[in-house]
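Mods, move this if it's the wrong board.
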Amino acid sequence: MALGETGNVSRRPSPHPRIKTVGYPAPEGAGSHTHQYLRGLEAHVRRGQTVLRACLSLKRQGFQPDVVIAHPGWGEALFLKEAWPQARHIHYLEFYYQTQGADVGFDPAFPDSLDDRCRVRIKNATQQLSFEAADAAISPTAWQKSRFPPSWQHKIHLCHDGIDTARIRPDEKAQVQVGGQTLTREQEVVTFVARNLEPYRGFHTFMQAVPLILEQRPQAHILIVGGDGVSYGKPPADAASYREQYVAAWGNSVDHSRVHFLGHLPYADYLRVLQISALHVYLTYPFVLSWSMLEAMSAGCLVLGSDTKPVREVIRDGDNGFLTDFFDAQALASRAASLLANRQALTPIRAAARETACTTYDLQGICLPRILDLLAPHPILT
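Not the wrong board. Structure tokens:
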């Protein structure tokens, strides 16, 4: 049984014939007079109540789960134990907010305020209240796991969601049609991917590097995948999107015929972008590690990642990829140009990147068996 907000459930088919999906109505948000630090918490409590009502309805119909799995970040897990006290409750722990050592205060271009830091301290309240009812938890990377309180660590099992390395693999015949031309692995294609193009994923640094990359590599094309929204942080103050803001900053310094903004893509098209990539750039704040970086490695990309803790957990500079300073656009461009110039000699790095994905993050062979073990009554997972 899968439970989700009706609007989301209705847009997606059931993932498997044996899985029944049930929707619950979108709850109201916080009241207009609620203190700003507490608005998220109030909205989460309302969601938790709505989910509890849906669970009690299922219970009256005779549904009694052995295991309940939930992401506690938005309130869905707050009251699940009240519906099914005998079940094992497992939480997916994605990120624990702190005022130091991670995303908050990391980027001097977007300084945080005392008000921001106070608000962040309250953001974990929902997870803290929910975790009291958790029997176990999963966190996808060692760095993300380490962010949670020491008293939680004995319950948290390290296990990534898993990458489908059988599907996401190199394809020398892959092609992408852009700007009236066909791009393949033979061209110098630099790729950049984010759900939304924003500072949390280093979009501002990358955009500052693009003119320098194009100048040093006159045959290069830049493919940028991602939307104009904001997944994390704040929207730009003086533009409709960060893409618009940084394109305007280029002025006439860029040959726009070699820069291609592809927006959101169907998954198969996105994979072809990775498969033709000569160099994949992945930048991130110290925050949740994107699946896209691991998928790029699985596709055999030559990855140039930011020298930040989530990335350093996976990429070993000069072994299975390369690292660069998150803030230094000139160093990024120089390293990118050098890697493109020597890309034929770096085939072993590509192979090592895929090997890392296959031996550590493979869905079928590694991650799914670990998750299934955790669901067992007496798990052996450590």
